[in-house]
Amino acid sequence: MIRGYYFITDSGLSISGNLSDVKQALNANISVVQYRNKSASSRDFYEEALAIREICEKAVFLINDRIDIALAVNADGVHLGHSDLPYHIARQLLGKNKIIGLTVHSLDDALAAHEMGADYIGVSPIFPTPTKTDAGEPFGIEGLRKIREKVAIPIVAIGGINLSNALRIINAGADAICAISAVVTKPDVCAEVEKFQALFPKKPIKSTQRF
Ligand code: TZP
Ligand code: MG
To answer: Which DSSP string corresponds to 30-90?
Structure first.
């Protein structure tokens, strides 16, 4: 299920390395891990994805961009953006049981993703972020709230999130939040993730979950 802290790897920002970060985040009982790597060769991508796959026994394991590698390591699904293969092709390749999450940059995008059958949306970015300078115009809290009003599938909020603004984002209706730099640049990744996890109500306020 997509809820709580949603972990995404970032080897450029990490101080402990992706595998160590994922292990620590899993110790904070996260429910989803996304392996994202924008610079690795296909072989390195595959090998690191496989290593992370092996430790994600309880968490949903998703791969960013690479449908081929998601299939190769039997990931639970993929996360795709506007420059990746279109949703319907990804669905054909992955079958109906794999999870497909789509990045959305507008309310229209979000409605289209819902209509297409996406399993969740990544609303991106909520705030400006130096981690992804081409992320587009930030939604802000009100933009996120408008999407929440119209879209019932799980929402992952991403971009510029830290411990000071995370609660407002959860209260605006995000089912999950991802904060990359706020976590992987810290020596104790588990402790940082736990702080985000603690912001979520024990039970979801609204049941939007499909898995
Ligand atoms: N996609 C949209 S914003 C972003 C990604 C991968 C980066 C988020 O990083 P940070 O450090 O949490 O702002
Ligand atoms: Mg992508």
So the answer is: -SEEEE--SS--HHHHHHHHHHHHHH-SSSEEEEES-HHHHHHTT-SEEEE-TTS--HHHH
